[in-house]
Amino acid sequence: MRTRDTCVSRGQSLLIISKINKLDNSRLGLAISKKAGNAVVRNTIKRVSREFFRKKEFSINKDYLIINKKTINFKKYTTEEIKKSIKSDLERSFR
Q: Coil, helix or strand for 76?
């Protein structure tokens, strides 16, 4: 979905909403619910997302909101599988 300055990207495990801001930098917001898994799983999702955002160079300043999908339960996946899934969603949406 795209409006004038908002873009929504739906990945396998994440919903990423981006909106152009008028600031000098890009910002990241994370909303990871308890339904994603225990604290270890949620922190892994947040850590991988922050690291990806930190390494990314942006040409346009935007606000990014990353929300986990409620249909994905990460409890049954290994840490490496979670990282791979998150990175693929982020790479697809940050093109």
A: helix
